[in-house]
Amino acid sequence: MNQLFSVEEKVILLTGGCGILGACMTKHLAKEGAIVVILDRDPNKGKALVEEITGEGGKALFLLTDVLKKEILEANKTDILKAYGRIDVLVNLAGGNQAGATIPPDKTIFDLDIDAFRSVVDLNLFGTVLPTVVFSEVMVKQKKGSIINISSESALRPLTRVVGYGCAKAAVSNFTQYMAGELALKFGEGLRVNAMAPGFFLTEQNRALMTNPDGTPSPRCQTVMAHTPFGRLGKPDELLGTLQWLASDASAFVTGTVIPVDGGFDAFSI
Q: What are the residues whose beta carbons fall under 8 Å from the beta carbon of 92, sequence distance 6 or more?
């Protein structure tokens, strides 16, 4: 069997692993034979996800965390090393948006809630930086590891409304490229840092923006689909191929990339 894309027995950490996209990724990687460590702030969802995975013969561990508190992440690292002795892949999924950090059509930049903006930047940017710093230290000692950040279509081009989220994700893309050079130049070619930039997928954080109360596509969603060559929103499992490629040795010479998974949205203009 060709093992090029194998993640079997790799210890893969996923921050924010209980969300819609995170749970989809976590379950897929477990089915592919990885040992998944779910780092999330929701113990009920985390424990339920572990039970589902282990019930199907997979290997999973849940650890309560806060991606904005380095001391908690350090404690998580200690527990992971005690359980498995290594960290092969880190997927930085934790993130989100707030209404106050957006600008709807009936408001302007002068209505922006700066505290909400700061909170969104903290969660998306520092919630990527801190886990990267904590867990990459293990990878440096191993001289091998893959970090996969989650950027966004809003980082590639400014989208209306989501000013706070877009700025934060643009910073994540920049940090991804910076860390690719930092780790490879100073610690060796076995260390890779890349990012996925999902296009438009329906999640809990954007559901109110993308759907009407009756579940039908909102005007914004219709506009998005009109500018997506595939003519629809993405499905969570359509992120899995890119995820597995970046987590496996198939992408051994790939670092510093930000890969759109967007049905052609970024490539399309009118």
A: 15, 16, 127, 128, 131, 132, 147, 148, 149, 150, 172
CATH fold of the domain at 11-267: Rossmann fold (3.40.50)
pLDDT in tens, 185-202: 999 999 999 999 999 988
**Annotated domain spans of the chain:** 11-267
Active site residue 165: yes
Residue 167 tokens read as 């700025």
Sign of CA dihedral 52, 2, 14, 125: negative
Give tens-digit pLDDT for 19-52.
999 999 999 999 999 999 999 999 999 999 999 9
In this prediction, the residues of the chain whose per-residue pLDDT falls under 50 are: none
List the catalytic residue out of 62, 117, 135, 165: 165
pLDDT value of residue 1? 61
Q: Which two tokens stand for residue 57?
A: 């013969």
For 145: left if phi > 0, alpha if psi spans -120 to 50, otherwise beta; the answer is: left
Q: Can you tell me the distance from the alpha carbon of 238 to that of 242, in angstroms, rounded to the nearest whole number?
A: 8
Tokens of 134: 């904590």
